[in-house]
Amino acid sequence: MKSLSIRVTSMVNLGETNLFTGVSYDVSRENYRDTICRVMRQLLHHILEHSEDDTKSLFSIIKIISDLLHFKGSQKHEFDSRWKSFNLVKKSMENRLHGRKQHIRALLIDRVMLQHELRKLTVEGCEYRSIHQELMRDLLRLSTSTYSQVRSRAQSVLFTALGTYNFCCRDVIPRVLEFLEPDRSDITQQQFKGALYCLLGNHSGVCLANLHDWDCITLTWPAIVRSGLSSAMSLEKPSIVRLFDDLADKVHRQYETIGIDFAIPSECRAVAVQLQTSGVPLPPEPVPSDQEEAEGLRKQEEKNLDSEQKYDKLVGELLDRLNDRNMPWKFEHIAIGFMSLLLRDDHPLPSPAVLFFVKSLNHDSLLVRKVAISAVAGIMKQLKRPHKKVPVSPNKLCGMKELAGLIAGDRPDNQWLQYNSSSLPRTQQDWEGCTFVEKTHWGYYSWPQKLMMYAPSEEQPKQGLTREEMTEREQIIYDHFSDPGFINQLIEFLSLEDRKGKDKFSPRRFCLFKGLFRNFNDAFLPLLKPHMERLVADTHESKQRCVAEITSGLIRGSKHWSYGKVESLWELLCPLIRTALNNITVETYADWGTCIATACESRDPRKLHWLFEMLMESPVNGEGGSFVDACRLYVLQGGLAQQEWRVPELLHRLLQYLEPKLTQVYKNVRERIGSVLTYIFMIDVNLPYTQPTASPRIKEFTERVLLRLKPLTEGDEEIQNHVVEENDVGEQDERTQAIKLLKTVLKWLMASAGRSFSTAVPEQLQLLPLLFKIAPVENDDSYDELKRDAKTCLSLMSQGLLYTEQIPLVLLALKEVHTHTKTGQTHLQPLSPFTAISKEKHFQKHVKSPIVKPLVLTTL
């Protein structure tokens, strides 16, 4: 049988490994597999020509062809079944005491036999020969025949064969695509559908439309799009439409970027030579000579050039199909989807494709516009100019020696990274002299071994290029976004509602505007400014979302702008954001929160001091009602949470501002303040090798809160629902104020349980008696919030991790609660946290405590 492995040229032997079982051929040396193949092919062709409706005979022939192709002493499905059975037996008979050892002898023998069969199935019979070619062509003919059951069985065998023989797909694909040619009028719908199923493949097998090979996809993708013009294609047949949908979906889900440049660094080649010459292990082939290595490098360069040409050819063919006005809309969408997959970071998209995607931003179809937004954002990433970085010594910047060991947290050598209102860069000179560190995590635990920072602005790529200085791709984008008509239409589309009540802040649109302002500086800002001012004044959900996406992209895109341009930008944005916060609604507050959080992510807070100072301006001022106050806090929280440990001054200022407002009457404001407090104290953690935080600390705050809660903690008077109604602004006594304060504190404790990095501190445990005092109280419906929150806090605190030194404090609190309880029902309340504590491994040290025994006995 003739080998067809010459389809792929290689300097490495691609032949199969033949296994010798020790049994010789008979004297005649006849190849029985080849003989059976010739006879069955004659019979198959006769049946297909004279009695194609004899499906039973065709089923038998398909089974025989399957055995001829795949049977090497065992069937794959039988092997899979035995492998599963072996694993079940092994698991049921394993010796868990000794781990994986001590398996019985029969089990080991079974495993060896399975390994031998697996080797036979996978190693032998993978070389594509002429007999395999003939059988696979017959299978393809059966896979596109008249009867669906025959097609289905033949396709199943074909898919298995495609995954068995090396490079056979290159031989099969052109024959499959012949059925999709639009110029052929002799193709039936059954053949058309069969060819589509062959391209689609099965769930676990090879998909011919999505092979990791330029030679294959340069044939299949244009052919799939061209098939929309075929006479056998009908968009009115649901089965065919579904097939194309499945095909496009599978390509998008499984496509992996195919390499263009396969160059191997010289360092890797040197290591490979060392490995071959070391003799451990001894390579089966001799070390390549210098001539062979030079020949390999030449072929590699040829392959790289060939891959690049095929990439450009594929993009060009898809564009040609898209420019065909007779192309049905579905195939236009498929072609655009294929084009979007060809975006890559190591090779720029050809200029005609850039022009197509930019124009498609204003396409009539929503689906096309969405793909174009993602594609143009990716093109912006391709066109991004690299900024020079230089090594920086953090110790020289702070004027300190390098620390001896690992110490996390706020240290003298990372204080210069933190937000300090007295040393903010407010002038051009300060801006240029400031070393900005954008990554939030740098410096908290340790410094990178080689800290690379952006070089001074004079060493960076030129900003504000003229059109003549731009590349062809940049000119295409610049021309369109400088056109007022194009911008008007784009903003009109972006501010349309997509799905009522389900639309959210779009990361794709954010990336689009971020790329625009990063690559082209503020060139398009004059055109966008009136649109932003118009949109922010409109309270409609889609309008507000659009301006929020532009704003976040603008803030992130201005990362490398000069000081003068950044200052002018914030003169525009600050009033804009103030207007947005005043016009905020239930539908838009989440979008503005995402906008600010996205804008502040991985950014140096000193670069954004205009934003933070503006957001800190009286967030809870009552203007617009309690909802607007809660939304302002939510937006501020989103920005500060991204900065984590780098804004202690802002966190102290915010806590100082919020403390007098903890007695808020409105529930939504209380809940939001509780959530904000969680993030204020987020960095206050007690971990080994960690410095005390410079941010606000829970201990000090809790002590101040406990002083204000004294009217509730002192005395045995039952806490009643006598809080003044929300519309009453009159004077209120200390007890009423304490109850409102307690409501806010409970919201904070509940929020902290799920988000905080640490459990309750000792000072918070002093609230336990008060929580037990409230939880069992039965009262009217208006009092349910306080009671429910107290019970929730008790439940969460009882499930948290307790440190060894905290257990005595909890026991004392439980004793105090038990002393003041009067009813049998209340006696049961302390048992929940007590049960949780008893499960702690450190509790055994405290079992003999004089507190434990009386507490348990009295409760019983």
From TrEMBL:
Protein name, per record: Proteasome activator subunit 4
UniProt region (Disordered), positions on chain: 279-305
Pfam families associated with the record: HEAT_PSME4
GO BP of this protein: proteasomal ubiquitin-independent protein catabolic process
Residue ranges, compositional bias (Basic and acidic residues): 295-305
Gene Ontology molecular function, alphabetical: peptidase activator activity; proteasome binding
Domain Proteasome activator complex subunit 4-like HEAT repeat-like: 354-637
PANTHER family for the chain: PROTEASOME ACTIVATOR COMPLEX SUBUNIT 4 (PTHR32170)
Source organism superkingdom: Eukaryota
GO cellular component, one term: cytosol
